[in-house]
Amino acid sequence: MTKKRNSTAGRTSSKKAKPSTRRISDRTIGLLLALFAFLLYVNTLHHGYVLDDNLAISDNPKVTQGISGIPHIFAQPYRENCFGGCLYRPVTLSTFAIEWSMAPRQPLIGHWMNVLWYAASAFFLFLTLRRLLPNRNIWLPIIASALFIAHPIHTEVIANIKSRDEILSLFFVVLSLFHFSKWHGTTHWRYLLFAGLAYLMALLSKEGAITMMVVFPFIGWIFFQKTFLSSIKYSWWALIPLVIFFALRGFALAGLTEPEIHMIDNPIVEAHGLERLGTSMIILGKYLWLLIFPLNLVNDYSYNVIPVRSLFSTPALISFCLYAGIALFTVFGLMKRKISGFFAFAFRIGNRAVIRRRATLAVQ
Fold first, then answer.
1. Burial tier of 164 (Cβ tally within 10 Å: 0-12, 13-18, 19+)
2. Residue 108 lies in a domain
């Protein structure tokens, strides 16, 4: 009997000793996706300055002062005399100034940093999706992250150093969402602090991050099963970085006025009523088309490339119907706490921000 027990115990022990199959950690997958992002754009590292790079970097006196110019960067608009619009993006210009102090007139460091920031964004994008979708098949966030990373529509942003503002805004928005989702899991105040700091950095990188103000309140409602009112209440922290941003921006732009916008730069300036609405819908339709079929991409849509059209033109009506359908899908999805509804809402908010900022279509 003793031998039998020992034999049985030995077999049990042997079974327990077998190595278990371990899943690859989320951080490892995130690092692999970051490496994927880096390798996709490694060919841009030895490119020179292109498009608006000189205007933002080598011909910008605040940037060419190096680190000593950073106080002036935070106290002045993005471009001298509000050329091209009264913008305020001090974090982006500060990164250029730091790089200039390290390697003046060397675009190599700028391209390196663009690719590295993009790779870091890919890493946190996956980790954030994993936190928001912990019970979904891991392949869902992997595929979603990989598609985002590899989408050709991002090419100009990564290859053009000046577009650091887009990359930094993306990175800090995703980082803010990452910490906000961690807060929902632990309710420790430090995660709200990190989320707020990251969101402030996103706003100071590019103003478009302001659209996240209407996205944050839905995080608790959709992903963490909070009541809608509590979800809104838990998003109060985002008001603090917003107030700080507007205070800094107001100080830097005090006394300055927006320059006149010419038709050559914005094809719908001279359009009114149904023509303005129709052309705007065509541009939105172009965004949707390029999202699904990213073919024949160009870096700029100049005057009359997209002619002014009435809302009753065929392309405008098609686009209007598509976006009306997306709007209905979004409302239904949000009411039913559907994840697909949330992402449709985020897409719609992002498009609205872009169309209000640009009437000319710069595919980034």
1. buried
2. yes
- Indicate whether 246 and 308 sit together in one domain: no
Cα(324)–Cα(75) distance, rounded to whole angstroms? 42
Are 238 and 274 spatial neighbours (Cβ–Cβ below 8 Å)? no
Residue given tokens 């990989």 in the structure block: 146
Q: Outline where the chain has alpha helix (H).
A: 2-17, 26-40, 53-56, 61-64, 70-74, 90-102, 107-132, 139-150, 155-159, 164-186, 189-205, 217-223, 228-233, 239-252, 273-292, 314-335, 339-357
Question: Tens of pLDDT along 311-345?
Answer: 899 999 999 999 999 999 999 999 998 988 888 88
In angstroms, the CA 321 to CA 294 distance is: 21
Domain assignment present for residue 10? The answer is no
Q: What is the pLDDT of residues 162-212, one digit of tens each?
A: 999 999 999 999 999 999 999 998 878 999 999 999 999 999 999 999 999
Are 78 and 175 within one domain?
yes
Residues 300 and 169 in one domain: no
Q: Which domain holds residue 223?
A: 26-252
Considering the domain boundaries, does residue 80 fall inside one? yes
Q: Count of CB atoms within 10 A of residue 39's CB?
A: 11
Position of tokens 């339709």?
285
The answer to whether 86 touches 258, Cβ cutoff 8 Å, is yes
What are the tokens at 278? Answer: 């129709």
Assigned token pair, 235: 């998003």
Q: If you count them, how many residues does the chain have?
A: 364
Angle between helices 107-132 and 164-186 (to 10 degrees): 30
d(CA 211, CA 355): 13
